[in-house]
Amino acid sequence: TGILQILQTRTSRRFLQSRLTPEMERKLVFLTSNVKFGLQKRYQDWFTKQYLSTTESQALRYDVIRFIVGVIHPTNELLCSDIIPRWAVIGWLLTSCTSPVVLANCKLALFYDWLCYDPEKDNIMNIEPAILLMSNSIPKHASITAGLLDFLCR
């Protein structure tokens, strides 16, 4: 019937997967399920060099964030392990943006599920990365939290 109906329709996980190549998916799943937190720099540098180094590829960042938020849902065992959490990968993607427009779109990709969240239909894992990114960034990277809160308020 209109925009409200579109906003109330959950994005299919298949659609989020179709925005990335299978190789990118595999590498993101590897990063978020096998790489220990604190040892991720070389993997992130490699991923950036391989997929995100050109000006045109900057737009892939928000597709990667939507994929991480909407498709990669780690098990409880993985959440309790020392593997790099989803929020840290998203924080890296946000802080390495070079364009203000891309950064705004990345923030929207992160918060999209917040804006359309329905507890009856949606998964808490879709809003968890944004919450954890903001709360875990406060001690050492308060500007990230401030930027995200500013985006939400505006």
Short précis:
The chain has 154 residues and is an all-alpha fold. It is globular and about 50 Å long.
Largest sheet: none
N-to-C SSE series? Answer: HHHHHHHHHH
Q: Please work out how many helical segments DSSP would assign.
A: 10
Radius of gyration: 15 Å
Q: Please, how many domains? A: 1
| Low-confidence segments | none
Span from first to last CA?
27 Å
Structural class: mainly alpha
| Average pLDDT level | 89
Helix percentage: 55-70%
Q: Could you tell me the strand content as a percent range?
A: under 5%
Gross morphology is globular
Secondary structure: number of strands? 0
How would you portray this structure in words?
- With 154 residues, the chain is an all-alpha fold.
- The protein has one domain.
- Helices cover 65% and strands 0% of the residues.
- It has 10 helices and no strands.
- The chain has helices at residues 3-8, 13-18, 22-34, 41-52, 60-70, 76-79, 86-95, 100-115, 128-137, 142-153.
- Helix 5 runs parallel beside helix 8 (100-115) and helix 7 (86-95) packs across helix 9 (128-137).
- The two termini are 27 Å apart.
- The mean pLDDT is 89.
- This is SOSS complex subunit A homolog.
- Residues 1-154 form the Integrator complex subunit 3 N-terminal domain.
- Pfam families: Ints3_N.
